[in-house]
Design brief:
- The protein has nine helices and 14 strands.
- Helices cover 37% and strands 23% of the residues.
- By secondary structure, it is an alpha/beta fold.
- Strand 2 and strand 3 form a beta hairpin.
- Helix 7 crosses helix 9.
- The protein has one domain: Ribonuclease Z/Hydroxyacylglutathione hydrolase-like (Metallo-beta-lactamase, Chain A).
- The protein has a seven-stranded mixed beta sheet. Strands 8-9-10-11-12 form a five-stranded mixed beta sheet, with no helix packed on it.
Length: 311
């Protein structure tokens, strides 16, 4: 079940239905058992995967989370309560946990955000995952801390953008980074407003990506997909993709005033809500970023926000 990725670190691919359909959990070897980096989503098939691994005699010393998106934190409470494994999270991550415990507020914020930007109604049967956040972590870490994962020391690196509380773990001597969802090998991480609060996460993301030049990395271990062996090249490809999309979005509001939902539809077409929400979020955060650069401006009309090229 475990795949060796480098000395002292193994990978478990935790699969589940829906969403990204799988998460890479990394197990760092230690004298008292493994340190698990991210757990996978709360789902029967994910629990069965971990139970099968525990049945082989594997011991886990602690769980450490890169960020609090549900596919990374989903089984942290299960590890703590069912397996007696302590869970460590960032201080910012704990603040995000507290927000996600109030699902009614988040649903209200998301519904308002969608409506304001011309989107559809939030489905009434949207799931409630607040229970996965209803536990108290056993310890916290913060930016610039040094953490012992298994028997290895890692530098904690704050990389907001994909999530406000996203952290990577870096080893300078091995040029190795546990990179979570900050950079992925084949796809671009979605930059969204998942609590329904409007801010400029794409600006944060670009700054975090720029910081990668200070952490020379020969092997990056991402939260989804394959290992990244040429991080600098992958970063450049990713940034080129963002630049292309930003130019595309900007060109659309040159011709006419559009809501974020209308721009999204022109780029991605008509999608079911389960497939729509990520493209919509990516479109909205691009418009917010362009607005911060004074390339577009917004105005309100009939209760909705429209964007237009700033000539």
């Amino acid at each position: 079940m475990l795949v060796d990725v480098c000395e002292g670190i193994e990978k478990l691919v935790v699969r589940f239905a829906g969403g990204m359909q799988e998460v890479n959990s990394y197990l760092v070897k230690g004298e008292n058992g493994y340190t698990v980096i991210d757990t996978g989503i709360y789902a029967e098939e994910a629990i069965a995967t971990w139970e099968a691994l525990f049945d082989t005699g594997v011991e886990v010393e602690k769980v450490v989370l890169t960020h609090t998106h549900q596919d990374h934190i989903g089984l942290a409470r299960w590890f703590q309560e069912q397996k007696g494994v302590p869970v460590f999270i960032s201080k910012l991550g704990y603040k995000e946990m507290l927000k996600h415990r109030d699902k009614a507020r988040i649903k209200g914020n998301l519904a308002d955000l969608l409506h304001m930007h011309g989107g559809p109604d939030l489905p009434s049967k949207i799931g409630n995952d607040s229970f996965i956040y209803e536990f108290e972590p056993d310890g916290f870490f913060d930016e610039t801390d040094t953490m012992l994962l298994g028997n290895q020391l890692f530098e904690v690196v704050w990389t907001p953008g994909h999530a406000p509380d996203h952290y990577c773990f870096y080893q300078k001597d091995r040029k190795l980074m546990l990179i979570g969802d900050h950079i992925l090998n084949r796809i671009s991480p979605v930059i969204g407003l998942w609590t329904g609060e409007e801010f400029n996460p794409l600006n944060d993301y670009f700054a975090s990506v720029e910081r990668m030049q200070h952490y020379p990395t020969e092997l990056a271990l991402p939260g989804h997909g394959g290992n990244i062996h040429h991080l600098g090249e992958r970063v450049q490809t990713l940034l080129q993709g963002h630049e292309h999309r930003l130019e595309e979005v900007e060109s659309m509001v040159k011709a006419e005033s559009l809501t974020a939902n209308e721009v999204c539809g022109k780029i991605y077409g008509s999608l079911h809500f389960s497939l729509f929400i990520s493209p919509f979020m990516a479109t909205l955060t691009r418009l917010i970023y362009l607005e911060s650069m004074d390339k577009v401006y917004r105005f309100h009309q009939n209760g909705k926000v429209y964007f237009r090229f700033n000539q």
